[in-house]
Amino acid sequence: MAITIRLTDEQERQLQEAMELTEQATKSKAVLYMIENSKELISSAIALKQIRQLESEIGAKEKMIAKLKTGK
């Protein structure tokens, strides 16, 4: 199967970066890498989002505890 994709300049830059990060020599190989590893990539992105959310919640709780300790 052949696919033609029209990319913006920003998307072209991102694809070039993906090629470098995945150590793929061609754009098509970089896209195939992302397709073949999509489940793992998406799972990792979801996990990172959850970690960041929890870190934010922890920070808010720590601030609340500090206020309660100082009585302010």
Compile the SSE list and pairings.
Blueprint (H helix, E strand, L loop, with lengths): L8 H14 L4 H10 L1 H33 L2
Helix pairs in contact: 1-2
Account of the protein in words:
With about 70 residues, this protein is mainly alpha-helical. The chain has one domain (about 10-70). It has helices spanning about 10-20, 25-35, 40-70. α1 packs across α2 (about 25-35). It is elongated and about 65 Å long.
Mean pLDDT across the residues is 95
Radius of gyration: 20 Å
Helix and strand content put the structural class at mainly alpha
Distance between the termini: 66 Å
Bin the strand percentage.
under 5%
Low-confidence stretches: none
Number of self-contained structural domains = 1
Structure annotation, total helices: 3
What structural keywords apply?
3 helices, 72 residues, mainly alpha
In summary, what is this structure?
By secondary structure, this protein is an all-alpha fold. The protein has one domain. Helices cover 79% and strands 0% of the residues.
